[in-house]
Fold Transcriptional regulator.
Amino acid sequence: MKRGFIIVITVVSIGLIWYFLIKPQDYQVRVIAKTNIGVINQTLKAWNQSLTNATIQQIDNLENLKQTIHLTDSTHIYNWRISSITDSTSQLIVDVKDPDHSFQNKFFIPFTDTNFEKKARKTVIDFIENLNDHLKDFKVNFIGEEKLPATYCACVTHKTVQSKKAFAMMESYPFLNSVITNNSIQLNGVPFIETSHWNMQNDSIAFNFCYPIIKTDSLPIIKNLIYKDFTGRRSLKAIYNGNYMTSDRAWYTLLNYAKKNNIEVDKKPIEFFFNNPNMGGDALRWNAEIFMPIIE
């Protein structure tokens, strides 16, 4: 009896020590989202920018993000962990902690629905509602493999972040249009982006925004304008409909397909745009062809 009592006390003590002193989170929320990891990652970062006194950082990879929200009397830390279930669904496990009131939270949570729990659930629900609204704003359809044709082009180089890609394009449209019009240059296709760098950890990108043109011997030399050969490559292709600000959502669809099918790709997306965003209109009618080059 005495030995059994000691064992029980020991197990309970270890459990309490783990629960109050070692367990990393005060509270955990689980939810299913109907999209892939990359879209959740980017939407979470964009949603965080709409919050007051909130910061977010990506930890190691797309699947892990740490968000810190400063409230009036406390600081809440959300560790978002995203895992893939299917091509179109993901699970979010959100570990929430208030480092200044952790012991208090853990003590009361088993017995009552605390304000801390309510705040944590509301925060996660707010994000999921924001995500679901965002998913209505665009469509991505995977097409398959396609060989891009080579072309000659006039380009402007940009360095920015994914969320500001469309703004950089819009800045370049008037400049490139004036160059084409004023110098009687013949177009040879629709505008496109050729990515030269993509840092998936901090979302920084570098790209050439290009107009395909007919090469001649009399092309003008203009500051900030470069001419180059675009080399066609066999690539994975998707169709994107929506605002070009978020056309990178298609990048993750292509990466997911490549990973699932053991296809090695060069993570430098190419995007062809069939609408001018400066003209406005229903963004769901905007069309873009998105490519991820295959390494051969």
